[in-house]
Amino acid sequence: VSAMLYVSAYVASSIGLVWTLYMQATDGRGAAVTVGIALFVAGQLVIAGLASGVLGGLRDQDDSRQKITYDGAWRRLALGLELAGAVRALRR
Known about the structure:
There is one protein chain. This protein has 92 residues and is mainly alpha-helical. The mean pLDDT is 87. The chain has helices at residues 2-25, 31-60, 70-78, 83-91. The radius of gyration is 16 Å and the shape is elongated.
């Protein structure tokens, strides 16, 4: 479920970003820009929630070899560095 949520949030965020930039470049106004912004914000909110959830799951494990922060978890998710693993998990 988390993998599907992450992939969906990443795609929504990416589409929202590209849509908003395109609308700004072509003098788009009103509802069209709002849709892009809403997609981007919704995707980032889900990614932020997943980052805090991942961090909470890592804190439950007593293995502290790698220190991970919320910022580090958010960056990895927002940049798409975990997409390959999420897609692999979806294929199983």
